[in-house]
């Protein structure tokens, strides 16, 4: 049983990140259909997914089309009750749903002033008062959730849940634009930046198409504040320690070099997403450590 999921650019589409995390983190098989934002690609693709108009959009194995990330979360939870998408505890589940609903409908100043961009980080973006008010509200409800659920994990309601999925793009905005938050909120942001699934999404986004002008800002830049990747680089040739791609099992055609060792992949994207963050990929790590 494999679902279909329409997404936009990984590096820019915050709602697509939410949709993808619901499958990746909770182990639900999915087949991706990608379209570049602000082009005709997305409307053309969505003609095959009526009545959808936005990414993400899901098609279930029985053919039901479900647009919108909140609807996707609820439908997946009903079809996969043991996946852990929402907390099992009723009180924590209620809190998580409150959080997801407010995120889905709110924080428009933050979202407008600070669109998601996973390729850069800035020293300052001069956030206006409305953005600062959104940040205050975020910290208020994040703290409330921890108190209500008694969470002692890095996440808001105990184990990682749909509530955290919905705030993942907000965490990236705080990281990209160096937004002012307190220590507890900053720790929550760092938990998102270090999450293995998010690291894989960002690694793919870094090599997934050209920059789009809509997202360009002229603020001073700094290094990405998440985990620093291992120093891999793409190299020419096909000579490598392994003869088959660690992801597909197909013959090696493209190679990276890491600490003087050469590892091969079946295509440029497999190689380049690994170069972007080698430790994000368990199958590569297993090869690297072998």
Automatic annotation (TrEMBL):
Signal peptide: none
CDD domains to which the protein is assigned, alphabetical: GST_C_3 (cd03194)
PROSITE patterns: GST_NTER
Annotated transmembrane regions: none
Coiled-coil annotated residue ranges, if any: none
Gene3D superfamilies per UniProt: 1.20.1050.10, Glutaredoxin
Domain GST N-terminal: 3-84
Protein name as catalogued: Glutathione S-transferase
Natural source organism: Gemmobacter denitrificans
